[in-house]
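Case study: Cytochrome b.
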Amino acid sequence: MPLRKSNIVLKMVNGSVWELPCAPNLNMWWNFGSCLGLLLTSQIVTGMLLAIHYTPHEAMSFDSVSFIMRDVNYGWLIRSFHANGASMFFVCLYVHMGRGLYYSSYSSLLAVWNVGVCLYLMSMGIAFLGYVLPWGTMSFWGATVITNLFTVIPYVGMTIVHWMWGGYGVSGPTLKRFFVLHFFLPLAMVVVVGVHFLYLHEGGSNNPLGVSSDVLAVRFHPFYTSKDVVGLVIMYGVFSFLALGFPEALGNYLNNIPMDNLRTPQHIEPEWYFLYAYAILRSVPHKTVGILAMAMSFLMVAILPYIDNSNFRGLQYYPIGQLLFWIFVTNWALLGWIGSMPPKGVCYDYGQIFTVFHLLYFGLIVLVNRVWDSWIYAECR
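Here is what the predicted structure looks like once written out:
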């Protein structure tokens, strides 16, 4: 008997990875889960290396980042891989979520989807905390804007904000708290990823046809390990090209200027993966309603499995649903572009239109699929 089947520990790994039964028709869009695992590992390792030299002090943090970039051996390489790794992580994450929405993976894997939404929110929080740590101009003002959103919570909003700040404004205590959270939350995220895997292996993965494939299931190794290796090599090649060739392409030049709390930038712009949510927030004139609209954009992703009762699993069976989905993706990208522009003129008007469609999409897709189902069943009678 092979060691992987006789050893207690290796037996668990063997059943969860080596001999895991999988659908035989999984395509390239299923590779991004493995890419996310590799990138999360890369982020934790590079983050720990950066933490060795980083100083979470308002008078020294910016200089410590400069020290890492200039004086630490390969410090520039570590920071470039860490900063651009966050962007690459969100690229894979959004594609992974998009695949789940298109193929309706949530309909058969509800627990997996719910844990995935939690991982998405954790990723957003960790990325925001990390964005503050360089203590540049955009870091400081981004922290000021985002933390002030909690003031809309009745009665306790201002208390929560003061607790996050560690005082009456974004300052040194805020930086220390954000650094501690940014260091420990990824470790907590690893545990949640384990829960995500546990539910996934218990229920089995969805497939492009959306039908049960237990009879035709194949082993994960070698059928999908080989496919995943190819995907990981391509992804890491693109990632390395970005980190080594264009390390500042996705950053903001204002973050290379030390923090100045007396000089507000003309246009406060977050990282690209926050831009769509930022555009939704700015598109609503009323602060509280804008925050609720932004929260709804996250909440609808979690609610969708409970309101979608389509007869077929996946938009590949719904031509109008497919059209709506790709309009939604385009709309999401346009929201990101709006978020990168100053909130005035035609950009503000278009931002409101795109925001309304973004929030209505989840109801529209359910309605369209129900109408299509009723039409199909009417034709079959």
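For the exam, be able to explain this: The mean pLDDT is 89.
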